[in-house]
Amino acid sequence: MLTPHSPSPARNASPLAEVAARAIQYYADRFGPFPYSRLALTQMPGSDSQGWPGLVFLSSYAFLNEEEGAALHVSPFRRLLQQQIPAHETAHQWWGDLITWSSYRDQWLSEGLANYCALMMLQERNPAGFREVMEGYRES
Questions:
Q1: Which of 23, 30, 46, 113 is deepest in the core (most CB within 10 A)?
Q2: 3-state secondary structure of 3
């Protein structure tokens, strides 16, 4: 009998780096060149992620592959949202880091634009997943 592997951020780091690289290219084609000389990705324990200029802290959940997410009983809707974390945080390199807000009342613009950018990528790559996420947002 095979035993499942424990989640391993190191094992899943390369696919996440590829997602971020695709996001950089996608956004650069639409919003202008990547604004920094490099982007570093690292894991941050827990459910929160954060983007800083040239640095993205990704939630532990972003490092789960499909099997690991299923083993943790993450719903398909939540899994789709977790898969958007790298694209969302990468979008902050433009929205929130390069272009900032003038007061805390405007910070929602950064989050809204990063979410919109990640959804643009999802809609192009996975239209059914995009519809599922949008329906999940409507339901919540």
A1: 23
A2: coil
